[in-house]
Amino acid sequence: MHRTIFSTPIVNTLLRAFSIGFLKLNGWKIEGSLPSEHSKFVLIAAPHTSNWDLPYTLMVAFALRLNIYWMGKRQLFRWPFGGLMRWLGGVEVNREQSSNLVTAAAQALVAAEGSVQLIVPPEGTRSKTRYWKTGFYWIAHTAQVPIVLAYMDYERKLSGLGPVFTPTGDIEADMITIKAFYAQFKGKNWHQFDHE
Question: Could you give the CA distance from residue 150 to residue 190 in angstroms, rounded to a whole number?
Fold first, then answer.
């Protein structure tokens, strides 16, 4: 995994202080923490319904002292912002090209040193979608790491880390459990989020 803003010492400290201050000033409450018995996780980023999700996610990550990488569409990494997006933890995903993203992401997680969290939005888009993509599940299952159910509720101004979920391999049963947890949260454009 490449160097990011989260592994840049002085910048990290300054942005953590800014993030905590900004979120507190705007009435946001941050909950949860990573369990100490694991160092690598896949984090679900849901509901994902707005461009505002990225800056808020970055601030929450600073506040919780996370070392995140997030998957984003290829267009975000075009010049002149590509380098900045990678420094912010971005990992480019080319949706038009068929490649084994699950295997590559799982291998990168296994090979990474230290504490690492890979954030994957299950909807794969900010637009309304009926079905969740299952890449986050298979990345965690392949890498043999837990999934943390991270959330952002704009209505209650509440964000954080929920329960830790270990994939069993029975994706149908597991997805019912995972999606049921997200029924309580409202994204910025909540009508675009389908948890069923």
Answer: 16
Asked whether residue 130 is domain-assigned, the answer is: yes
Q: What is the pTM of this model?
A: 0.84
Largest distance between two CA atoms of the chain: 44
Place of tokens 């597991």: 174
As beta bridge partners, residue 10 has none
Other beta carbons within 10 Å of 80: 6
- Alpha-carbon distance of 77 to 146, in angstroms, equals 28
- Expressed as residue numbers, the domain containing 104 is 5-188
Is residue 132 pLDDT above 90, yes or no? no
Number of domains in the chain: 1
What is the Cα–Cα distance from 193 to 47, expressed in whole angstroms? 6
Residue 172 lies in a domain: yes
Q: Mean pLDDT in the chain?
A: 86
| 177: helix, strand or coil | helix
Query: Is 143 part of any domain?
Result: yes
Give just the sign of the alpha carbon dihedral 157, 68, 40, 36: negative
Tell me, yes or no, whether 196 lies in a domain: no
